């Protein structure tokens, strides 16, 4: 195994940020973009390779159609209409979305076109009911600065978001339509070459520029990052989709660069071997031969009437297990590819005997099919109609790696910071004109008006938050980067509650509850505001806010007032409070007699169990201390 150092690889990175815009309706219809999982409408489509109006087939579309899936769509009338169902042509372009996109392009100093042409981009995974996504290139060029580094912008598009995937099984894929058609901007940077630890900062800065408009959606799924990665030894750019967290970004870049360099080394080995595939001799049905194999995967496949095939590779023993760098192997690449076709079971010669496939099975197999000790082989199981397509794709892929090096894929970032095969990269035939929508004319006047709406920069906004509300810089950054900034300002404007308290409840208390598995989506803005209003009117104690949120976020209550009743959180007045504490002190005079002042600890626990959320901890503490002292004097 070779030692891996990313420094020598000349890694080039390009970011593609997809940010949902905070508009009241969708891009081409009047539906409200709200998340919901209650669906009253259900319909299905067969996934088909759609031929673009320009002719040529898209290779990615062909590849996907080989999987032949049924697509189920789930919808509800609040968040979708006949436009999303592809039963009605798109309406006019949403004005707010248009304006926000132009503001973003202006901040990034991009060259905005005077005429914008809506296009259809072929989508092959079923995430659009129409088979395409509507997109508009609104500008080219532009830049932003991260410290001294200037990051170039390639293009900015305004487009429709895709449907939300609900489930993906072997023959059925399910989507919800609530997200389909939500406006988003797609910003692609020019490729840049920086130290690995700078990548996160560069992505973060772009996200902050977008948030400075205060017109973009926040929270999980509202911003998605794709990253394009290439190394200097090849001219292949690999697109990695779905980087969820900026923390993943660095790892993903490192892994993908390592994988690309590793594939070049695997390619070299394949070339040296002079291997050529022979479809007549190298592929064999071994369903009969393996009928007694003890492997559970093989037996399950036979039970499901599947075929077991072996594919042999002349003189290539060791190739599937060869690991040029840690975690990079041809066997892993092939396993990812077959998983794409919904096939789980694939074994290669370098990992056998294993998984229930015994040495005797292998000896038997080699003898029967004249596979030499120098040959590698793959064993796989799939349905009869699928198995030849899959084997074909495996061979094509290995031949590609041998002859050309790195296959041009679209890949997906994993939770652990690796990348895995998603599908082949779509070809150039992907875009064609959208004839249902006329070109959009941007006038000089409109661009001049936009200049007046250019927001303060992120840095200025943070400084303003600090001075206006007297909160510390860290909290100002946290609240500004969170989805609660508007809510925070709203609460602080309408109450006299200390802004630092409001900000920390919105930033840390809610996050803590989320970490405990509770759902912040259940907590509506009006309930947050209502909770703080109750505090303002002294109807509840500070401590009750978190209890109310906990009650709502756990699904026990739907509103603040309901939570108030359910968790019996209502402030008790001082008189009543004193009575309760006196009572508890009276009942526990033994503890006080024995432990003197130290009785405070155990008694505080008892009191808090009774009074949690009904009075401030500070007040309870004071009264309890006073009562214990009184008691001690009287003993
Ligand atoms: Zn609609």
Question: Can you describe this structure?
Answer:
It is a single chain. With 635 residues, the protein is α+β, with helices and mostly antiparallel strands. The protein contains 20 helices and 22 strands. Strands 1, 4, 6, 7, 8, 9, 12, 13, 14, 19, 20 and 21 form a twelve-stranded mixed sheet that branches. Strands 2-3-11-10 form a four-stranded mixed sheet, with no helix packed on it. A four-stranded antiparallel sheet has the order 15-16-18-17, sandwiched between helices. Strand 10 and strand 11 form a beta hairpin. The longest helix has 28 residues. The protein is globular, with a radius of gyration of 31 Å. The N and C termini lie far apart (79 Å). The relative contact order is 0.10. About 1% of the residues have low confidence. Bound molecules: zinc ion (ZN). Zinc ion binds next to loops.
Q: Which features would summarize this protein structure in a list?
A:
single chain, 635 residues, alpha+beta, twelve-stranded mixed beta sheet, four-stranded mixed beta sheet, 20 helices, binds zinc ion
- Low-confidence regions: 50-57
- As a whole number of angstroms, the C-alpha radius of gyration is 31 Å
Principal-axis shape equals globular
End-to-end separation? 79 Å
The number of distinct β-strands equals 22
Reported for the largest beta sheet, the result is: 12 strands, mixed
């Amino acid at each position: 195994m070779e030692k891996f150092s990313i420094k020598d690889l000349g890694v080039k990175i390009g970011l593609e940020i997809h940010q949902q815009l905070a508009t009241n309706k969708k891009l081409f219809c009047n539906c409200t973009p709200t998340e919901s999982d209650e669906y009253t409408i259900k319909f299905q489509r067969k996934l088909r390779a759609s031929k673009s109006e320009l002719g040529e087939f898209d290779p990615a579309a062909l590849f996907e159609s080989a999987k032949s899936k049924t697509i189920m769509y789930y919808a509800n009338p609040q968040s979708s209409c006949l436009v999303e169902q592809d039963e009605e042509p798109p309406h006019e372009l949403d004005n707010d979305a248009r304006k926000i996109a132009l503001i973003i392009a202006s901040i990034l100093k991009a060259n905005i076109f005077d005429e914008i042409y809506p296009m259809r981009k072929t989508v092959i995974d079923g995430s659009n009911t129409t088979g395409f996504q509507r997109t508009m290139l609104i500008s080219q060029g532009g830049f932003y600065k991260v410290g001294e580094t200037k990051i170039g912008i390639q293009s900015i598009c305004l487009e429709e978001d895709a449907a939300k995937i609900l489930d993906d099984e072997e023959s059925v894929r399910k989507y919800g339509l609530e997200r389909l058609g939500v406006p988003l901007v797609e910003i692609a940077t020019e490729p840049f070459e920086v130290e690995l630890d700078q990548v996160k900062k560069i992505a973060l800065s772009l996200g902050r520029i977008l948030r400075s408009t205060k017109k973009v959606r926040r929270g999980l799924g509202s911003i998605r990052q794709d990253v394009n990665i290439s190394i200097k030894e090849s001219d292949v750019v690999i697109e990695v989709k779905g980087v969820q967290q900026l923390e993943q970004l660095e790892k993903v870049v490192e892994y993908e660069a390592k994988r690309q360099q590793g594939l070049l080394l695997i390619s070299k080995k394949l070339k040296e071997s002079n291997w050529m595939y022979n479809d007549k001799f190298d592929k064999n049905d071994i369903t009969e031969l393996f009928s007694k194999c003890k492997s559970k995967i093989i037996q399950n496949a036979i039970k499901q009437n599947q075929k077991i095939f072996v594919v042999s590779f002349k003189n290539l023993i060791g190739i599937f297990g060869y690991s040029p760098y840690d975690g990079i192997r041809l066997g892993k690449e092939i396993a990812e590819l077959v998983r794409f076709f919904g096939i789980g079971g694939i074994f290669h010669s370098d990992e056998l005997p294993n998984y229930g496939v015994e040495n005797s099975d292998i000896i038997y197999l080699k003898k029967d099919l004249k596979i030499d000790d120098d040959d590698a082989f793959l064993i796989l199981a799939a349905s009869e109609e699928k198995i030849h397509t899959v084997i074909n794709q495996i061979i094509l892929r290995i031949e590609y790696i041998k002859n050309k090096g790195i296959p041009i894929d679209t890949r997906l970032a994993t939770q652990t910071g690796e990348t895995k095969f998603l599908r082949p990269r779509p070809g150039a035939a992907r875009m064609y004109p959208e004839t249902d929508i006329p070109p959009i004319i941007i006038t000089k006047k409109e661009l001049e008006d936009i200049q007046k709406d250019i927001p303060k920069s992120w840095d200025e906004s943070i400084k303003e938050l600090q001075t206006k509300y007297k909160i510390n810089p860290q909290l100002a950054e946290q609240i500004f980067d969170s989805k609660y900034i508007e809510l925070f300002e709203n609460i602080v404007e309408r109450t006299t509650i200390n802004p630092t308290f409001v900000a920390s409840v919105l930033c840390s208390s809610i996050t803590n509850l989320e970490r405990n598995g509770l759902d912040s989506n259940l907590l509506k803005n009006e309930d947050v505001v209502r909770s703080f209003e109750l505090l303002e009117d002294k109807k509840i104690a500070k401590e009750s806010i978190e209890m109310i949120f906990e009650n709502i976020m756990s699904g026990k209550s739907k509103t603040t007032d309901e939570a108030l009743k359910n968790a019996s959180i209502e402030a008790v007045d001082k008189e009543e409070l004193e009575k309760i504490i006196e009572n508890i002190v009276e009942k526990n005079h033994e503890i006080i007699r024995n432990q003197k002042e130290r009785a405070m600890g155990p008694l505080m626990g008892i009191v808090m169990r009774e009074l949690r959320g009904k009075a401030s901890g500070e007040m309870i503490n004071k009264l309890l201390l006073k009562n214990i002292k009184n008691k001690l004097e009287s003993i």
